[in-house]
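Q: What does the assembled structure look like for these inputs?
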Amino acid sequence: MYRVDITADLNDEDETGYLWTFLDEARDPGQITPGALVVAGDEDTAAVCQVVDLAPAGDGTIVHLRLLPGLVDDYRQLVERALAS
Amino acid sequence: MAGGRIEQRLRLRAEPPLSEAAVLVRGGPDTQDKLARHARRTARAWSLDGQPLLGISVFAVLDIPLDELLSARFATYRMIHMPAAAWLRDRGFELLPTGLRPHYTVRLRRADSIELDELLAALGPPVANVQYARSTIWREEGRDVPRRHHRRPQ
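A:
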């Protein structure tokens, strides 16, 4: 069960080749800035992504996300290794 | 900021229709509720011929082998759906060549419970993703995605 920064369908992609979702689906929209690393998806499936840009679309703002390789758990282990004393 | 729905008609790729036997992939498992949410999100952002476009994303196994597509794009999914294009077409769903190849949008007309049940059936049962946790890199800027393509926030 994941607690994501921004809800997204990880299947979605547009003509930019990036995953996309709406900014107002973020738990804290203030975290969603170009370059930021976020966890996107839903409670069942999530991935670490990098925010590429924000663009107006529909009645809101679309966020483009670069899907990074690896599982969320891989990043947790990476951080644990890096911070191990 | 709001920019209006992004019209897809002129953005559709000029490609021949997928063959009936073409295999599609969608990360799952899907439920009626999830499909409804995703279809509504698409309709919020995209239009087709001026009308909100209800749709969900799938990828076709084109140009690269299935395992390569799974490891590059679906490695975070334990389960996937793998319908043939014919399964969707036979139930009346249109496959629109949206975004970059091999992405497609399965178009819904109403996204009501009857149609969502039909879509769930057409997607077929979820199966284990043999490439789960074996990820490689998906589209790379400069190789698969044009550089400086993106607009900056206004």
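Residues 20-128 of chain B form one domain.
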